Amino acid sequence: MREVYFIKQNKEKWLGIEQVIQGKIKKNPDDLSSLYINLVNDLSFAQTYYPKSNTTVYLNHLSSQIFQKIYKTKRVEENRFLYFFKTEVPLLVYQYRRYLGYAFLFFTLFTLIGLLSAIYDKNFANIILGEDYVNQTIENIKAGNAVGVYQSGSTWGSTIGIIFNNIGVGAKLYIYGIFGGVGTLYALLSNSVMLGSFQYFFYDYGALQDSARGIWLHGVFEIFAMVVEAMCGLILGASILFPRTLSRFNSFKNGFKDSFKIFLSTVPFTICAGIIEGYVTRHALKMPLFLNLIIIFGSLVVIGFYYFVYPSIVNKKINNQINDAIL
């Protein structure tokens, strides 16, 4: 059977299952089980004849969702907040993992553009970072305090301002995705070019090591979260540009719902980054180097595991539960 005909034949049924999952249509447990068995049969057929198709990915995700709907007793017993971060978000990240790859690819490319621009144009950092910031930082470097800019203001006042500013940047990266993802790429370009030129600026003045000891204390969470937020914007844009079997509006609704949940998952990391920047970064050069490294690499392990490794673990666990239920 051709894939197009297979989709056409089952499209209404799958859309009905989506309505059940979203709670718009109520079904008793027996009906839910029948829908689940029917859907698993469609998934098995798709895996056999269209193994690399988006249809197979879609049906696998739909099967996971309805499985959770049927076996929701554990979910009810579990704290809803914990469930969101332990299961719901990782499954979504796994489903859209290629967009995380795209976001990191563009981030790397744009950062290199900023780095090369700063190398070949000595005034580039002044244009991107601003004359006042550059001049102040040069004075700090000469005084042996490369991270002096982070020592101004009160700790709690700085922390609150930083957190709101970073959440605002992340929101732009996400919401601008509504322009077909182009707005997200533009926002990511602006921030990544700034990062590349920023790092070369410190290298050019011989303060890269000191700056890294301070900047990356909070920068790991902040920058990684920024890339994930860009991922959310790309998902939002793709839901508009590529609706697949759904209407464009329904595709957008699903894309917004899924991407917003992933976006929310970045907020705790953004808050942690703000707290570290407000309270810890100002003491970066006074801290033992090993403590700087523990915080930097510890942060990288935590956020890297959550978005790169843990989603695969959760997806595998759910698939094993599905297979056990079938057997």
From TrEMBL:
Record key words, sorted: Membrane, Transmembrane, Transmembrane helix
InterPro entries: SpoIIM-like
Bilayer-crossing regions: 99-120, 173-203, 215-242, 262-280, 289-309
UniProt cross-references to Pfam families, sorted A to Z: SpoIIM (PF01944)
Protein name per Swiss-Prot or TrEMBL: Stage II sporulation protein M
Lineage start: Bacteria, Pseudomonadati, Bacteroidota, Flavobacteriia, Flavobacteriales
